[in-house]
Specification:
Layout lengths: L7 E2 L3 E4 L6 H9 L1 H4 L9 H18 L3 E6 L5 E8 L13 E7 L8 H16 L5 E6 L3 H9 L2 E9 L2 E8 L1
Parallel strand pairs: 5-6
Antiparallel strand pairs: 1-2, 2-3, 3-4, 4-5, 6-8, 7-8
Helix pairs in contact: 1-3
């Protein structure tokens, strides 16, 4: 299933396919302890970041959905990643077969509402492109800011579990 990444626009953001020219900013984001603490669990090397960038692009070809590069509309600055994916995670309850939502932003972009704005655009696109498909997310129990954002985005807690030896909450979007 080859599916080009759509371009989504909000008042302040442009969500688009990741580009090779994003790599330095992307690798920087994924090398930082704060944004990676609850995602990859550790900062990534440039090599690992390159693989993640390629995975983001490849998800679109395999699944017809994926992650977007989130950029500031006025400056073009890379802010982070937001979207949905299929990870075939070893987690109970399973989220396989759902649109698993996620977001990660540079620390300087935190607290500005970018993640909420980006995810609302993603969900609007998902409702048209994949109507009726369940939307989920998993969040580390200690990640209070993402838990608060998930609630503002309409997610409700479905289960408490463990993922990669960490207390994790599975959410479904109502």
């Amino acid at each position: 299933m080859t599916s080009p990444t759509p371009i989504l626009e909000t008042d302040r953001l442009l969500l688009r396919a990741h580009r090779v020219s994003d790599f330095d900013s992307f690798a920087h984001l994924w090398s930082l302890p704060e944004p990676t603490r609850f995602t990859s669990g550790k900062p990534l090397t440039r090599e690992e970041a390159w693989r993640r960038l390629a995975m983001h692009r490849g998800m679109w070809d395999l699944m017809g959905f994926g992650y977007f590069a989130v950029t500031e509309k006025t400056s073009g600055a890379f802010l982070g990643d937001a979207g949905v994916q299929e990870c075939h995670r070893n987690i109970a309850p399973s989220v396989t077969g759902t649109l698993e939502a996620g977001w990660v932003f540079l620390p300087e972009a935190h607290g500005r509402g970018y993640a909420k704005e980006a995810m609302e655009a993603v969900f609007s696109w998902c409702s048209q492109a994949h109507p009726g498909k369940a939307v989920t997310c998993i969040i580390d129990d200690e990640n209070t800011s993402s838990r608060k954002l998930a609630a503002r985005l309409g997610f409700v807690e479905k289960a408490r579990t463990r993922y990669k030896d960490r207390p994790t909450i599975v959410f479904w979007r109502g």
